[in-house]
Amino acid sequence: MKKILLFIAISVLAASCSNTEVRNASALAHRILGAKSSRISFVQTADSIDTFSLESKGRKIVISANNANSMAVGLNYYLKNYCLTTVSWYLADPVQTPKVLPAVPEKISVSARSESRFFLNYCTFGYSLPWFRWKEWERLIDWMALNGVNMPLAITGQEAVWQKVWRSYGMSDDQIRAYFTGPAVLPWHRMMNVDRWLGPLPQKWIDAQAKLQKQILKRERALNMTPVLSAFSGHIPMDMKELYPEAKILPVSLWDGFDESCRTYILHPDDPMFAEIQKRFLEEQTRMFGTDHIYGLDIFNEVDFFENRPWDPQELSRISHHVYETLTSVDSEAIWLQMGWMMYYDQKHWTPENIEAYLSSVPEGKIIMLDYFCEKQPIYEFTNGFYGQKFIWCFLGNFGGNTNLSGDFKNLGRGIEKAYSDNLPNMTGLGCTLEGFGVSQWLYEYALDKAWNTGMTDRQWLNNLADRHIGCKDEVYEQIWNELAYTVYTIPTYSGICPVAALHPCLEGHWNWTTLPDVPYTLQKISGIYNAMKTLGYDTDWFRFDLATIGSEVIKLELGEERDKLAAFYYERDLEGVKYHIDRMRELYDEWEQVASMHRAYSFDEWVGMARSWGDTDEEKDYYERSARIIPTTWGGNGQLTDYANRQWSGMITDYYRARWERFFEEILSDLSGDGPAFDQKTFDAHCRTLELAFGEPETE
Q1: Which of 691, 687, 682, 696 is nearest to 634 (CA)?
Q2: What is the pTM assigned to this prediction?
Q3: What does DSSP say about strands 116-119 and 427-432: parallel, antiparallel, or unpaired?
């Protein structure tokens, strides 16, 4: 009798778990499809690996999978390949589906090639996500599930945890909030790059973000994701130096043009207080948000605290060992997730010897490295596969949220396939570490699809992508997308990508490292593609996005050519020639504004509006707007980062990019006409800097 009761109990529990998975997947389907989701039926299987199958049974589309995450991937496979539907990561973009959901002619089954599928980057929380509310996060989480993501970075709301920790050490709320940066800069505060910039952080923001994080984590866990929360990296408020003068608190190198007022400080991991703070933080974070036992912790991201002395492998070994011990002393199941960006970015210090010392002092399998920029340089290839530690092959694809065409489609696929063929047992998955969303959702879909055994060739994948963007099969549009993928998307993204049309004006060159305009295709090539697209005349949201994206690229290159022609006439002191090309540039800016206005993804007003929505009073709204305006323009510091996060958005095109060029036109015309002094780039830079800083301030009535 006891055996029978035990069997019944186990069966009930299994059914309950199964129903939970099905309910969570069904809820996602309803959010995406509305009433049409009634045609979708989910069934949980007992498979030990991530897998799904699709088939039609009567009027139902049956998706069988091992858990809700795999069910979501199965749903997305159905939407993409049978319904020709692409789901955007933006809530505002409509999900366009056939009036009647089509049947699946024959059963298909797909399994995962990768155990882990990572998504997001610390920077994404500043360049794309700072103003997201729950409704926007809800869509993004659904998008992640649909694309198989099961290890998302989840760093929202941690300031509420830190506030409680620093209070316990005697800091006042005013001190703590002043230590934090403004909302859009928090990722760089969390990475120990900058303190106080655009602060103090409002208490209402801290509280609201903590509430939002609870919603995010609940949904991610419901969809079988393992969110990566934060841990203590040693970043400590400057005020703690006065409160605890005996502590080993060291200044960190100034970061990217910021001055002493924004310098960060680190508590050396050797200091006994490090373990104590780690314990207080992790225990408080677990009380507030729970834990999934994976912690993002990055000590050396673009900073140095060794006071210009040589890096010592033995010290690096001690540091990583102590840090790991502070994690496991609180959570015996702790896994340390470490960005590999520093090992690409600072190869002078991160030599193979130093990397080996840093990684080998942590027990094997207890640290996971994110090989951050594999499309450019896989770090695993020169570190013997991270010396046995687990790693995730990552596609970065975007710096700063830039809205420029970039990415090497062909070699991205080759790189992923090579990583799989290398057959390293410690490569545990694929990931996407985009700094911002930019304009290339399709490349991230492609990379994440590579984590599954779909059997689809690249040609088939591109054809399907083209058909999805217009909602029907069209061989002409398929050919256009193949041409884009193989002749335009041919080099990895790079830091500082920016067209001449959007850079700080100058007669020649590109002014700064943040504005590098070189592209691997000609104006003739991109114009031909754009003209072919325009002849098709489709009216889907994705087609309008494609038109705005490619059309903008054409105009940007035309503006670059006009700048060079203008400069040539200027050097010849030909006033009429200069006037002609100034007028031509003005015409192109007008045209560009119209093209960008074709799709909401290119709206500066939307970015600012989302920021202002976080405020209740005009003063609060202005505070958030200032943060929103500064990030894609001057960024901060002494101007070194100006335009790093450039976005060619409607609203910025006329009021920011063109406005700077208009000031430039004014000064060179004054020079050539004899009404003013000879044009001087340094003098103009000062005038332009004033204009740039003014744009960073909220508009007043």
Answers
A1: 696
A2: 0.96
A3: parallel
In sequence order, what are the residues at sequence separation of 6 or more whose Cβ sits closer than 8 angstroms to the Cβ of residue 450?
A: 113, 413, 416, 417, 430
- Nearest residue to 235 (alpha-carbon basis) of 301, 136, 140, 149: 301
d(CA 649, CA 541): 17
Averaged over 562-572, what is the pLDDT?
Answer: 98
- The amino acid occupying position 36 is K
Location of structure tokens 């492998």: 313
**Residue 664: partners with Cβ closer than 8 Å, 6 or more residues away:** 505, 684, 688
φ/ψ of 102, rounded to 5, equals -75, 160
Helix (H) or strand (E) holding 367: strand 367-371
pLDDT at 309: 85
For the chain, what's the residue count? 701
CB-based contacts of 294: which residues, under 8 Å, 6+ apart?
151, 226, 227, 228, 229, 334, 335, 337, 368
Give the model confidence (pLDDT) of 374-401 as tens digits. 999 999 999 999 999 999 999 999 999 9
Half-sphere exposure of 420 (CA within 13 A, CB side): 16
In this structure, what is the dihedral angle of CA atoms 282, 285, 289, 292, given to the nearest 10 degrees?
-10
On whether the CB atoms of residues 274 and 326 are closer than 8 A, the answer is: yes
Residue-wise pLDDT for 226-256, tens only, equals 999 999 999 999 999 999 999 999 999 999 9
Report the C-alpha gap between 210 and 159 in whole angstroms.
Answer: 8
